[in-house]
Amino acid sequence: MFAQIKRILVGRPIATEHQHHERLSKTTALAVFSSDALSSVSYATEAILTILILGGSAALGLSLPIAAAIAMLLLIVGFSYRQTIKAYPQGGGGYIVTRDNLGDLPGLVAAGALLIDYVLTVAVSISAGVAAITSLATNWGFPSLRDHAVEIALVCILIVTITNLRGAKESGVIFSIPTYAFITGILSMIVVGIGHDLVFGAEPVTHSIDPDIPLTGEALSLWLILRAFAAGCTALTGIEAISDGVQAFKPPEARNAAITLTWMISLLVTMFLGITWLAYTHQAVPNEFTHETIVSQIARTIFGVGPVYVFIQVATALILVLAANTAFADFPRLASFLSRDRFLPRQFASRGDRLVFSNGILVLGMFSALLVVIFRANEIAMLPLYAVGVFTSFTLSQSGMVRRHLRLRQPGWLHSVMINGFGAILTAIVLVILMVTKFVHGAWMVITAIPILVLMFRAINLHYRRVAEQLSLSGAILPPELRRHTAIVLVSGIHRGVLPALQYARSIAPDNVTAVYVDLDPDATEKLRARWRDWGCDIPLVVLESPFRSLINPIVRYIEEVETRYGDDVITVILPEFVPARWWEHLLHNQTGLLIKTTLRLRGNVVTSVPYRLER
Amino acid sequence: MFAQIKRILVGRPIATEHQHHERLSKTTALAVFSSDALSSVSYATEAILTILILGGSAALGLSLPIAAAIAMLLLIVGFSYRQTIKAYPQGGGGYIVTRDNLGDLPGLVAAGALLIDYVLTVAVSISAGVAAITSLATNWGFPSLRDHAVEIALVCILIVTITNLRGAKESGVIFSIPTYAFITGILSMIVVGIGHDLVFGAEPVTHSIDPDIPLTGEALSLWLILRAFAAGCTALTGIEAISDGVQAFKPPEARNAAITLTWMISLLVTMFLGITWLAYTHQAVPNEFTHETIVSQIARTIFGVGPVYVFIQVATALILVLAANTAFADFPRLASFLSRDRFLPRQFASRGDRLVFSNGILVLGMFSALLVVIFRANEIAMLPLYAVGVFTSFTLSQSGMVRRHLRLRQPGWLHSVMINGFGAILTAIVLVILMVTKFVHGAWMVITAIPILVLMFRAINLHYRRVAEQLSLSGAILPPELRRHTAIVLVSGIHRGVLPALQYARSIAPDNVTAVYVDLDPDATEKLRARWRDWGCDIPLVVLESPFRSLINPIVRYIEEVETRYGDDVITVILPEFVPARWWEHLLHNQTGLLIKTTLRLRGNVVTSVPYRLER
Predict the structure, then answer these.
(1) Cross-chain residue pair B499–A507, CB shorter than 8 Å
(2) What CA–CA distance (Å, rounded) separates A80 from B584?
(3) Which of B460, B478, B610 lies at the smallest CB-CB distance from A606?
(4) Is the pTM of this model over 0.90?
(5) Which domains does chain A possess?
(6) How do residues A518-559 score in pLDDT, each as one tens digit?
(7) Mind telling me which Pfam families this protein's record contains (chains A, B) (predicted)?
(8) Which of A442, A541, B1, B240 is the most exposed, having the fewest neighbouring CB atoms within 10 Å of its CB?
(9) Taking CB atoms and an 8 Å cut-off, how many pairs form between chains A and B?
(10) CA–CA dist B132, B11 (Å, integer)
């Protein structure tokens, strides 16, 4: 039954030989890998304005120089990443580049930071997508949809999780249309908006309930400007996705990835600056009463609440859902790298039926759903946790690239050192700004979580290394030929299901079998003794007392005794088990067999199940 | 670790031989078994008034005759139950009496109805207890406590569940004080209140926010009166508890139980009529704004918001929590009867460490918590579901008693037939009134759930009977002596953990062992082949292809082949398993071994685990 449900949701298994066919063209890859980066323009401007408004309406004009600074940062980081793609055509995410060039510990820091950021990407993007839809609903007269933001967000996460479990190729097809719709919608809005402004002048945004803008707020300090800048840096999240997934491109992988990265950065800078400009000229501000997004405010002021506005809102919501999808491509891949290097459990490295890393997808879905519930699907409240991880990874991986250029000294290395070195220094400065300005607003959680994750990675790695040492065959000797067998059959009564187990026991240990029964009810014990004479196959029956009604303890004590007495024998504990004909019937039988088997296995006992199948 | 937590919460195991010492004296039994019945006076009057108020303020006076009718019903049903206690000194709940005299199907209907009612008892009582506390908090200036009613209720359910898992005797001691405090508090309130009214006249209740009482509401129809009567019948819930638990009394059990029942009915009638009278004279009405209970309104009007008022509210809250405890005594006991008769899974019949039916307690805790969450801890909203079950059981068990008297014709049988017959007819009429008047308000859920439960009971019973037939030894023949052994060792590689399994396989099937490996990665397979020559103990290695990366399917297909080829052999599938040294390390290893074992067990294969313990 479970198998059928899985089949319907996830689809039929795909054979391993089809693996390399699941590659993406540049246009599809842009949709799959860039939606995270591009979609951040839908909340980055709003994040800046949310901080600036604390300085009063006069401070809002600062959004333009701040956005320009962030756009510069974007170009520099993007340019740096082209170097990474060239150097790591097999795929160079922050973890691989950092570990390769700076060693294990920095590599694990980068990995931990990125895993956290991917979870946040899903939670933030889905929540922002829901905000786009509830803004639309509010303008259509359904403001109460906002009350169901959490439920809608959870359903979206579920859909994205299932889509990803089905596999990457289909994702590409499903995801291309909304990404290009979003790009078209936002670029049209910018062109029409600026054109209209030039000809007719910009009209200010109107609100059904006016937001509460202080005329003068806190002093317009450098601190406030840095906070606003830090808030806007969420625009950079996601630009590393392409360098992480070079292998998903059609050959020549590196070249195609680099071209796609350039397209993406250009689109990102254009849209971010355009939206910030329009927000400034149309005086759009975050509204704490209606929760209407900045993009929604601008779009309906330029186009009215008509079909174009609806198109932009729906496209925004869809691309944000797809942005979550970028994390669903990256988190499982990074987890599989960590697993392959034995820093995460093996399960993250194995591909499921549909050739995707199913376990990583499921874990990401669960953690991001948890964040959505905790933060009630309010993406603005999550932003202080966001971007710290990705800038940690930027800084470490650019530093790693510098080290690499210095070591390899390939042609043009000095030029490369300068590019990556400048990128590293700049992102390090931004990282410090992020950590300091966002610390009390939530970044402390991420800053404490990263070392915990690193400790976990190392504990797991230590375990795997110890196991490998202990299982190593070097110096091993073949165990001696086995001596006499002793068999213990655990019986809960005497019935047809027990007979095959008794026969099996006699066949492996002809001269040393006992049947063991735990006395929980004197009447039942008496009955058993009487019938054992006829049906016990001449095997002696041992009845164990159990004053506290425990099954396990008397059995373990008895086995200890046998081990002392027949120290040289191989002891096999045999459990007769009957197998019901229908799945739900399993629930009706004591699960104690499983408990006994687990306990004995942990003790190191050889345990044999002899099943007896019921026909109906 | 889990074992330690359990020890702290539940306590040390109690030996079986202490079982019969856990008996209750009459005063303790009154506390344990009567809290459900007695505590219902804290909401029964309110339930009547909530309906009557729909007819406008003029209708409120009808509460007095309605309460008098319910009091009569109480006396008659109580008197009937004395007959049951006499006839069933070993304990005669609705299920046993009905099944014994009317047969399986009516017995199961009674059982299903009672199980549902016990879950409701917990949910309603705990929610009403929380309402007593939030009313107190409101009068002390903390009205916002009402917003956390659900959380408080869930914590209370958890505490009661754990207390019951610890065992009945301790419960008795803990629970006596609040029950007697409640009785003292309510009786004092009635005496002082009526006395004060006679001397000085009754002053009306004042409200911080006045409730919305329509002067004229819907027409004062018979329908409205019947609905109010049906609502007040919740006062009868719980009076069957004593007859269900006669065995828990000290000897002579039946006599002590009958005396306790008489005390309980007298107290119940006095308190119910007293509260209804005071509610009438002081014009107390349900307040939909403050959610203050009727008892709270009366108590503070009579005593002021002083220590006596606090005493009454706290005692009310505590006895309501204890009322939930009655269900925690009854539900697991009824479930154990059903389990003993094979209508519920066996697990409900086995006593846990502390001699209580732990599984019944846990299931009740979970379902009642679910109800509290669904109904947001609003006991008035749950009342329409309540009492249908208990009146179903009243009617069936009284009818059963009539049948019994007619059959046995013991001395005085005619007198007994008249008492029980009158009780049966009366409760049947009330049951019809309850079902009709409450149907659309929620009773439909119970009316549809009962047949579903009955079907479940019968399906479980059918299963157990089929299993017993199939396992019966009558006509069985001893299976033939076992022929040659064939062993298949499933290996995931070659390391020290595999060697003992290979040796074990050779020892049980010296001439017919193969090792089987599933090829998921060609490189790993090549390595394994190379090392197998040195370490394979001369056992042939079979490598299975797996184009869809499944481990199970190729293994099952291979075993099918072997079964065809060596049809006469006993085939044993051997799994080498290594056992990590620390518990968390188990999470790090593929759980596929468990999946393989389960699959093979369902096929009927003999499966042997050969563990290899890691030291660190």
Answers:
(1) no
(2) 41
(3) B610
(4) no
(5) 23-464 (1.20.1740.10), 485-613 (3.40.50.620)
(6) 998 888 899 899 888 888 778 999 999 988 888 888 999 999
(7) AA_permease_2
(8) B1
(9) 189
(10) 31
